[in-house]
Amino acid sequence: MRGRGQSDSPVSGYRLEDHVRDIDAVIRHLELEQFILMGYSRGVSYQLSYAVQHPERIQGLIIGDYPAVHTQLPPGWVDFFASLPPWRGKTLYERMTVEAVQALQRESSKVELWDELPKLECPVLIIHGVKPHPGLSLEAVEQYKRVLPHAIVVAFEEHDHNLFEPDVDTFVRTADSFMNEISNSNHNSSTTNTKGVRTWII
User: Fold this and answer.
1) Are 37 and 58 spatial neighbours (Cβ–Cβ below 8 Å)?
2) Structure pTM?
C-alpha cells in the first residue's frame, strides 16, 4: 500500500479512490480472479470500497474492527497517531514517512459505504474487540447485521481494537475456520447466506 513499509511514498494521492486503485493494480498484477479479501482498521474502507466495485471477484470478506465508513481525519490526528505506542514493534515513522502521514490526513474525506453493502452476497466475517476503545462500536455492529444479514459476527472478549494481541492465535484460528468453510462449500455462498447472522464470542 502506498506510503507504507517499503512501498513508494508519493507526496500526494492518499484519497480513498487512490488506495482502491492500488488494490486493483496488485490484484491485476497477480492475475487473481477470485479471492478472500481482509481489511483491518482504516483498511476496511479500502477493502469494502474495492469489494462493492468488484463483487464478482470476492469469495469472502473478513472485516476487522471498523465500520463501513472512510473517515475524515481531524486536525491534530497526525500528532495523536504518532504519539501511540509502537505497533508490532515499530513506531509510526518506522512504518510510514512523515509526508505520507500528513497527506493521509490532508486528503481524507468522509465516505459512507453502508448503502453499498447489500450488493455483496459473498460470505462475510466481522471481528470486533470488546475491551475499551475498539474500532467498531456495538451500534456499528448492529448496522452491519442489518445490511449484511448473512454475516458471521465474532466478538473477541480479551481484545480491544488490536485484534492480534494479546493472543494472535485467536485471530488466526477464527480466520482459518471461516476460510476453510468457504473452501469446503466449493466456493458456493448459498449455504452461508441462508443461515442469517451468527454471533460468536471468543
Assistant:
1) yes
2) 0.89
Taking Cα atoms as reference points, which of 68, 33, 46, 45 lies closest to residue 187? 33
Sequence length of the chain is: 202
Q: How many CA atoms lie within 13 A of 8 on its CB side?
A: 7
The pLDDT tens digits of the residues spanning 66-113 come to 999 999 999 999 999 999 999 888 999 999 999 999 999 999 999 999
Q: Burial-class residue 10 by CB neighbours within 10 Å (0-12, 13-18, 19+).
A: middle
- Closest by CA to 50, choosing from 30, 26, 82, 74, is 26
SS3 category, 74? coil
Distance in angstroms (rounded) separating the CA atoms of residues 60 and 65: 16
Beta strands in 41-156 (DSSP E): 58-64, 69-70, 111-112, 124-129, 152-156
Q: Is 180 exposed, middle or buried (0-12, 13-18, 19+ CB in 10 A)?
A: exposed
Q: Using CA atoms, how far apart are residues 82 and 60, in angstroms rounded to an integer?
A: 33
Cα gap 31→24, rounded to integer Å = 10
What distance in Å separates the CA atoms of residue 131 and residue 165, rounded to the nearest whole number? 12
